[in-house]
Amino acid sequence: MSRAESVAPYGGASERTREAFRNGDLPVGVYGLGKMGLPLAAAYAEVCGNVIGADTNEAVLTGVNRGESHVGGEPGLDALVERLVADEALRATDNRTAAAATSIHVVIVPTRLTDTNAPDLSILESVVEDIATGLSAGDLVLVECTVPPKTCREVVAPLLEAESDLAAGEFGVAFCPERTASGRALEDIRGAYPKVVGGIDEDSTRAARTIYEQLNAKGVLTVADATTAEAVKLFEGVYRDVNIALANELARFTDDLAVDVREAIATANTQPYCDIHDPGAGVGGHCIPYYPYFLAHDRTEDAPLLRTAREVNDGMPAFTVEKLREEFDAEGRSLGEATVLVLGVAYRPGVAETAATPARPIIDGLAAAGAEVLCADPLIDDFTDFDATPVSVAEVTDRAVDGVVLVTPHEAFERIDWNAFPSPLVVVDGRGALDLSATPHRVYTIGGGHV
To answer: What is the pTM of this model?
Structure first.
């Protein structure tokens, strides 16, 4: 069925929309084929069989149309993309071509921060302008990417109206945040958690719910409006940031109190009203370090708690370097004359990504202190952004190192023979992941103290 003959997803009966979607009579455009966008496009395509993925990267488009996934580390995605393309359920093109050929427009592009930590909506706005060139009455625009509250109501909908021939009320807009994590995207999209949807009007919410009920096995949670849905996504992230900041601040009491703060936290968490997260060497990733600014920027009310939490968490890499310096001093040695190995530059164990990784400021701090810095990470191939000499995990015990900082506890590090280093080390365990009690090394664990 051509698009012109299709049922309109916005403003129609839910049952008819549901049937048309599952039959492939409502072509879907997914804008942004990145690490979450391609899995989302694939998840849509395996349900409706009629998806056009859109991206500005020609190499991505060419690869997808060959049945290739450029997104690594996502179980099942490679085979799924290959099968969907072979079945002609998924194809890829540019934004405007996709907009002219589809009725449901799903936007999942990055929202970055400026140098002053202001949310930069330029990528989203550009995509929305492209969608507007092909927008038809009855179309539905679903925004999945994380944005500041009021973006759908005050930016997306007015921009669609201004750049198309349509008036408000002739098309739908809803915010339906992605609730996925790297390494489990398909699992999360298909239904690890309920989908949250909120529209700019009741018809938008109803249409979005109808669509996502077909994708998500856990169901859909509808909220009052798009702004509420935008807030839900941010609240999930800032809760973790503030909680981790609490844990990190408590970890700084370890030496003064002469207690293992990690043990105290774990024991406190046996009480049902307590759920303190783990302290560590810093907070990285695409989400947690950024979302507080989406809420705090340009608000009438200040956000002192969110800003303080960011300061605490951003300060943990420097705290880690300082602890290593103190441990060297206690040994009568100088950090400035040491060779230090940093274990893990990925922002999270098992994920081959370095977004906002605390390893970078730790490496920079060690280099600024005069140390020679080595780094090892089994998942990362390109270390050009790090002021350190990369070594393989298998070779770390062959290097003449004086100190080690564990930043990211990959499984591969569990196989290191710590007794095989040529001489005793000064070690800072940034994650409480090492048991070096039977080794000759001097070990300090953030939140745990000395071994």
So the answer is: 0.94
